[in-house]
Amino acid sequence: MGKENVVGSSQISGTWGKLWWDGTLIAEVLSFEAKVTANREEVQFGMSKDSKITSLSGEGTIKLGKVYSRGKKKLLEAWKNGEDPRSTLTSKVKDPGTPGKQAETVTINNVWFNELALSQFEKGGKIEEELSFGFTPNDSDVMDEIDEI
Fold this sequence. Notes:
single chain; mainly beta; Pnp Oxidase, Chain A; eight-stranded antiparallel sheet; 1 helix; 8 strands; DUF2001; XkdM-like_sf
């Protein structure tokens, strides 16, 4: 049964989010999102339409403040050689205001990247890069959850 009263300070802030890429902490991460989509087919019973999950797909984005080249050359060279390198991403949010000081940790294995910005800039502006990726949902796990206390 859920709590009837939740105070605003319990709302989790993304400020405390961290991301590791193949075990390396990515300090310049600005945002991260990974989601699983249930792919469905329509099923009809009499006059009613329902749906059946036929597969799962995973995708996401990482937005970085440009500080390093962050594996750009390695990925480009692999692609040029017909290789499809895979990575592991781990995200963790541990807000000090979370009830019980709990954390939410998600690990995603078998991550592939879909595109690579070779170069970009705007005079007078800071550079941000966005990396889109895919993954197999069966290779992802919620390692730690934030539970009601």
